[in-house]
């Protein structure tokens, strides 16, 4: 299949396929396209975002079954073959012989690459080694100075996962302020986010950098682009005094305030309507696990709110109004809110 045809067929399942490299497209044709079409026949949409508990359990099941049929004795050998140079040839032969790529993705409507990365995160023993000691932090800074951002190399030297060493270095590379945000920090954050969004628009719409830099050019973007898939480590670098998670949380709080601007009574009514719609939508979904909720789709349905805002509102609802919520299942919490809290909110409205 030629690349143009491949992109056209994959676009039905992956809207952002234009931004994927040619080599990745070729791999997705072999690993994903047939699976996606089969899921479509079953009425199942391809998913992105956070993995649900059900999907995590399916990954564990797939890995256990592959270990059983291949004769390999642990998941680390399967997913981190380079750590076993003496057995590498045998492991790769067994993976090819028993169709590892197909087996690991069974029953999971997601791109193979995402499933593979999720499995590596779940089964990497280096992911669960607790807090970094002061000695480890110093080692990390030394290795980064020697090897740059080659996190794979550094993870091998420190026996920590790639993600762990990358995120820890991001956290400790500069003095981080944990106090209230200053006006100067907020301005830096807004400027950094604005530039990141401009780059997203440029990539998505093919607009030239010069056209975006014109002072009289209005920048119109979809609401989702204001908070989804922003390069937070780059934004952290431009802010300089805050960790990337702090930047993300602060930006989300700024968005919530901006989106709820208006007269006090109107804002109060809007918040009330949002709570009512949120409870109704969650009830209609009939899901058993909070991880199965697509908060992005919910925010689209409600309008003028972010996914983060809805998650915060749901947390406040259950903590404030559901007795002993810690001991209830997700579906029990939703049922309680629908039966007892919803009528009260509707009466207020």
TrEMBL record:
One MF annotation (Gene Ontology) recorded for this entry: chromatin binding
CC per GO annotation: nucleolus
Signal peptide (from-to): none
Short name of one Pfam family: Myb_DNA-bind_6
Domain (Myb-like): residue spans on this chain: 124-172, 173-255
GO BP, one annotated term: termination of RNA polymerase I transcription
Location of the HTH myb-type domain: 124-161
Superkingdom of the organism of origin: Eukaryota
InterPro entries in the record: Homeodomain-like_sf, Myb_dom, SANT/Myb, TTF1-like
Name the UniProt record assigns to this protein: TTF1 factor
Taxonomic source organism: Mionectes macconnelli
Source taxonomy: Eukaryota, Metazoa, Chordata, Craniata, Vertebrata
